[in-house]
């Protein structure tokens, strides 16, 4: 086995770390400078995931050729539309854009054009697509990542964190240029352009119905009334978390919420007798006592609910059943899925693009489960577009899907 190259560590930005912008006058000066720069604008945002409620930005970083780096505190300057106006229709360069676009939009930053170096790296077939790995691949230096999971809501922000944040945009544009050349050499420029254009309209992941059903440990909960207890406790925890602006899991971990729902304590004594799973101290979790009125009230509400108002044990989904059930429920669709997956895998290997980027697994399952009995190319095309497939994906998937359906006609059932 060949040892991985020992890349030199980039420990400081070439132009130093800029002062943190915390007032409107400095923000306007930054906007004027960015407007005077040239070329694409590198952007990044730091959130406090796991520490704060929601996904707002607590630091925004920008860099543009000719004017250097900028660090903005969006808590002190919550309206960054002057920067948006300054950037205009210049191309944004981000890494893993879907992580940052929603929180940037909240402060008034919305791209007209963008280049995602993480997605571009996937399309180019790079084996590792984290920012540090991509920088190593194209530029031969490595970035320190020791501050990637810190609490960016902390104030004042420590200087080492600001160094780290500045470095996150320091090399994005050079990486973008190398990556664009790679995509061009592989004949993937138009594919990337369609993918990046779709990202300019990305507003965030779809809102889930009944998000409380994703509570960790729900498989331990039996019966509709116990399920209702999970719901009421989850909603109570969410309200506390929103009020305190902390991550819900820091109010109460899922494991303890589920334990409470199963035990259904009737009073303070029974509530405080619960023990957090894997607790070393053996003492009650502090939030059990601190918010005991909220927990007991939630449980009391469930006891008073009529049977008809209890949530169903399961929720009907418009998604197809799990593929493992297809052989029994729809054997023709199961055979189609097996063949289509194999064909897409061959395309993935030939094109050097991950198979999930050729067509999302969810789209593939939905189309094949819903496919009409006869081969109707227009139906497949329309359905793929409705599911969000880009034109290049439709062009690639359409012959695979129509051929697969033709090879496994419904009359074989």
How would the blueprint of this fold be written?
Blueprint: E1 9-10, E2 20-21, H1 24-36, E3 38-47, E4 57-65, E5 68-72, H2 81-87, E6 91-94, H3 97-106, E7 113-116, H4 117-123, H5 131-139, E8 142-143, H6 159-170, H7 172-185, H8 189-199, H9 224-244, H10 248-251, H11 254-263, H12 268-272, H13 286-290, H14 292-303, H15 326-329, H16 331-351, H17 355-358, H18 361-370, H19 377-386, H20 391-407
Parallel strand pairs: 1-8, 2-5, 3-6, 6-7
Antiparallel strand pairs: 3-4, 4-5
Helix pairs in contact: 1-2, 4-7, 5-7, 9-11, 9-14, 16-18, 16-20, 19-20
What does this structure look like?
The radius of gyration is 26 Å and the shape is flat. A hairpin with a 2-residue loop joins strand 4 and strand 5. The two termini are 50 Å apart. The protein has 20 helices and eight strands. The protein has 413 residues and is α/β, with parallel strands linked by helices. The protein has three domains: 191 residues, 2-Layer Sandwich (Nucleotidyltransferase, domain 5), CATH 3.30.420; 98 residues, HRDC domain (DNA polymerase, domain 1); 90 residues, Orthogonal Bundle (DNA polymerase, domain 1), CATH 1.10.150. GO terms for molecular function: 3'-5' exonuclease activity; nucleic acid binding; nucleotide binding. This is Ribonuclease D. InterPro entries: 3'-5'_exonuclease_dom (IPR002562), Exo_C (IPR041605), HRDC-like_sf (IPR010997), HRDC_dom (IPR002121), HRDC_dom_sf (IPR044876), RNase_D-like (IPR051086), RNaseH-like_sf (IPR012337), RNaseH_sf (IPR036397).
Task: Offer a concise description of the structure.
With 413 residues, the chain is α/β, with parallel strands linked by helices.
